[in-house]
């Protein structure tokens, strides 16, 4: 990594070593330097401006910063290396599974992420709002198994997906009708 930094002016880092470039007189060459980084970062900002035309300059800058991949020393690399794919295609997630628990037992739910850089981590959480419980940790798996107990109250399942430092959440609301016979609402 090459840098030209002072304690408070680096927001993000961009590629600066072995950058493909067009050579004078034709052909493709490879060069190194911060002068090559500047147009790459500016180009990334313009791609974001085109993708999100109603966002302010501050929002566009924050989008580029918040999706950057950490490189360790923030004094030298700011928020990290720009990740244009992560910035234009942030992660999203939805949960699939039964939304009505009609009988006590185990129910399986699966998170389906998209966007980001294609590599995901997962964090599941559950709560039972009718009995006043807070969010409980379910673990770091794409699939989550919930045990529905008779009369246990409705259930909220939340999955958080992280990809390249950006996160997305989805919550599925599950009606627990166990103990109600065939009625959905007790």
In short:
By secondary structure, this protein is α+β, with helices and mostly antiparallel strands.
Q: Give the SSE string.
A: EEHHHHEEEEEEEE
The neighbouring-strand order within the major sheet is 4-10-9-6-7
Low-confidence stretches: 181-186
CATH evolutionary superfamily of the largest domain: Immunoglobulins
Termini gap: 63 Å
User: What is the CATH topology assignment of the largest domain?
Assistant: Immunoglobulin-like
Q: Main beta sheet: strand number and arrangement? A: 5 strands, mixed
Notes on the protein architecture:
This protein is an alpha+beta fold. The protein has 2 domains: 19-88, no CATH class; 92-176, Sandwich (Immunoglobulin-like), CATH 2.60.40. Helices cover 20% and strands 33% of the residues. The protein has helices spanning 34-51, 57-66, 74-77, 84-88, and strands at 19-22, 28-31, 92-96, 100-101, 105-114, 121-127, 136-139, 143-148, 155-163, 166-176. It has a 5-stranded mixed β-sheet with strand order 4-10-9-6-7, with no helix packed on it. It has a 3-stranded antiparallel β-sheet with strand order 3-5-8, with no helix packed on it. The chain has a two-stranded antiparallel ribbon with strand order 1-2. Helix 1 (34-51) packs across helix 2 (57-66). It is elongated and about 80 Å long. Residues 181-186 have low confidence and may be disordered.
What are the key terms here?
186 residues, elongated, 33% strand, 4 helices, Immunoglobulin-like, 2 domains, alpha+beta, disordered C terminus
